[in-house]
Design brief:
The chain is an alpha/beta fold. Helix content is 31%, strand content 25%. The strands form 3 sheets. Strands 2-1-3-4-9-8-7-5-6 form a 9-stranded mixed beta sheet, with helices on both faces.
Length: 516
């Protein structure tokens, strides 16, 4: 049994960024857990607690529907960092005053640092931070001093060093706060006195123990192996925990990228020697999707069929009472208010919000609290092939959410060829190492073109290329003119059915990375 690590508790007060805060904490090699306010004291009691971080949130502390945060969190004898709403709640609870600001602050803001110590050790003068608030602290509690300010927010950062209580009105967890990670790291190291010894090896050891505890000594797991980094790392973790009691199933749903089935069979059967079953369920999935155009309905139908296929295959294994999945946190946070806060549901993911209620299998999801880059680090630690570790994310519903409108075998074939051109050209040019995702989208429109002096009326292909560090936010990336020209020419000349190629230049937010 591993020794419980020193830990930080993150209290989710309704922000979309609770797990992003957790990711930053783990980047500093510190273990952390997230809890809603209702369970914060319960979780704190079972941790070897070294500090508390109160997240931001959409509410106003003086509103009737504000999150009910237990004031005893400030009596645990550990440092506390309040971020945005978290700062406002802490200051109000300790005797300060919060009210609507005369001028709201949203976006990049110049921060003037008055005290280069505690959170701001090694950070002097000015820096850029990300603000997103309509309320602010107007009067500080007793014992608090100002550490930083902006033009419109005099108490942009404040704290009581004696008690280890600090608050920041901005969001240090987002990359737009240029030195935000240093501030969080200072809180962990300078204030909480943490050693930063939580490494990939520790994560693997912990998850292996959790899997063994869930599955037991004779339980078996059925896992959907897609060949992407998520399911591959999940498979290796579960295999390390229970060995041959893991039964991996690859479902060819007809919505895959070009040559995907062949690559998965060769890699995991021959190289990693996993117990792998390949199921061709193309007809079933395409039949279910016939006539369906609503993106949410597509996702739920695909999720239903996946589960049904797994349930059927699991009948071959009498002890297979568990379903393994490579669910990541960005999937979870877009699908459900996972920690009990006011987090908005963005869209359903087939392995999160779309599971039927009659699923008679327990879930084993060793990656559920992790981001993509963390999963890749664990994959490298486990010796996973770099070609899989660095593979770009591919959605669970596959090409179905990149085909706007009805999904048919013909439209899948059309998009599959165009997507292969996009992927192969970008990778041949060596540009893929700078990108998060790069793929083609089939739009539900046709347009007039001219080929060989004749009129055409054919489909339109969109190219989606984005850069990101975690998938929570993303910027569109512009490829060089020659590469874009080559991709466009190849799609139009080689894929019969396209006569127009367009470029998606929207960021996340406001758009999502996938079109559906």
């Amino acid at each position: 049994m591993t020794t419980a690590p020193k830990a930080v508790l993150i209290v989710d007060l309704g922000t979309q960024y609770a797990q992003l805060i957790a990711r930053r904490v783990r980047e500093a090699s510190v273990y952390c857990e997230i809890a809603p306010p209702s369970r914060a004291l319960e979780v704190a009691a079972r941790l070897d607690l070294a500090g508390v971080i109160l997240s931001g949130g959409p509410a106003s502390v003086y509103a009737a529907d504000a999150p009910r945060v237990p004031a005893k969190l400030l009596e645990l004898g550990v440092p506390v960092l309040g971020i945005c709403y978290g700062m406002q709640w802490m200051c109000q609870t300790l005797g300060g005053h919060v009210q609507a600001a005369d001028k709201r602050e949203f976006g990049r803001t110049s921060l003037v640092i008055g005290r280069a110590e505690a959170l701001f050790t090694g950070i002097e003068g000015r820096t850029v931070v990300w603000m997103s608030h309509g309320d602010q602290v107007e009067r500080l509690p007793a014992g608090f001093e100002v550490y930083a300010s902006s033009d419109t927010c005099p108490f942009a950062a404040a704290g009581d060093a004696r008690r280890g209580f600090f608050g920041v009105q901005f969001h240090p967890e987002v990359t737009h706060s240029l030195r935000g990670f240093e501030m969080l790291q200072n809180f962990l190291v300078e204030v909480c006195k943490l050693a930063g010894d939580w490494k990939p090896a520790s994560i693997v050891e912990r998850e292996v123990e959790k899997i063994r505890a869930i599955v037991g000594n004779d339980g078996e797991v059925v896992l959907g192996l897609s060949g992407g980094v998520d399911s591959s790392v999940a498979a290796l973790l579960i295999h390390r925990a229970i060995g041959s009691r893991l039964h991996s199933i690859f479902v060819d749903n007809g919505l895959l990228r070009k040559n995907e089935r062949d690559v998965v069979e060769a890699t995991f059967k021959q190289h990693y020697h996993l117990d792998l079953t390949v199921v061709d369920a193309t007809d079933r999935f395409l039949t279910s999707l016939r006539g369906v155009t609503d993106p949410e309905q597509k996702r739920k139908l695909i999720g239903r069929d996946f589960v049904d296929v797994f349930k059927k295959e699991a009948l071959r294994f009498q002890r297979a009472h568990f379903l393994g999945q490579g669910t990541l946190y960005p999937d979870v946070i877009e699908s459900v208010a996972v920690h009990g806060g006011n987090t908005a549901v963005i869209k359903s993911h087939h392995n999160v919000g779309g599971l039927p209620k009659d699923l008679n299998m327990g879930l084993v999801e060793p990656l559920r609290e992790l981001f993509k880059d963390e999963v890749r680090a664990i994959g490298r630690y486990l010796g996973l092939d770099e070609r899989i570790v660095n593979r770009q994310p591919f959605p669970g519903p596959g090409l179905a959410v990149r085909i706007l409108g009805e999904v048919t075998a013909e439209r899948c074939a059309l998009l599959r060829e165009a997507d292969h051109i996009v992927t192969s050209e970008i990778e041949a040019a060596g540009k893929h190492t700078e990108l998060w995702q790069y793929f083609a989208v089939l739009l539900p429109v046709k347009s007039v073109g001219v080929m060989g002096d004749a009129r055409t009326y054919e489909s339109c292909c969109a190219i989606r290329v984005v850069s990101s560090t975690d998938g929570m936010t993303a910027d569109w990336a512009l490829l060089d003119h020659e590469l874009l020209s080559r991709i466009s020419n190849r799609i139009i000349n080689e894929v019969r059915g396209f006569n127009r190629v367009v470029l998606d230049i929207s960021s996340k937010p406001p758009a999502t990375i996938e079109w559906e």
